[in-house]
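Customer ticket, subject: "Can you confirm the structure for RecQ-mediated genome instability protein 2?"

Message body: Hello, I'm evaluating your service for our small team and ran a test protein. I'd like someone to confirm that this is what the system normally returns, since I don't have a reference to compare against.
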Amino acid sequence: MFYPGMDTSSGPLMRKLLIGQLFQDPTNLPKYDSVRQLWEHSLPNRPPLLWGIVWLQGTVTEYFDEHSVVLDDGTGRIRIDCLKGAKNNPISTPEVGEYIAVIGDLVCPTEQSAGQVSEWYIAAKLLVTLSERQSSEESSTQLADLNVALFELSWPLEVMDMIHAL
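Agent reply: Thanks for trying us out. I re-ran your input and got the following:
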């Protein structure tokens, strides 16, 4: 929502995105305004998407290391670092199989390796588990499965709705 006199020259602080959108142009590097790092994603026949930090949702598919996991939203995969984004308060590392929401900074590798998607990661500022861990050994209720399916199916629609509302 925009208000009279609102400065719209800077991008929004946070944007809901799909992982696949982050890497449509892996050579795209951030710009800097007077306050923060800004990312820009070009869209055909539309104004570009601008953001400072991202909001992603998806399923944790594996551990990357002690403080990092791999998130998959069906459009791509990215490493989530639970230590680097949280200044003095490390975030608990989620379990494999959990459906999570994460808000954080998109961290670009060095310019030399910017084209290597595997080098990029999210430095988590906030991480919320939206579902319980699903495991083949546990019998989960149909309601829990329905909630996970609802999150997974509605997330891409929420992202597209925000993009087309520009």
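A couple of notes from the result: The chain has a mean pLDDT of 75. The chain has one domain: 14-156. Feel free to reply with more questions.
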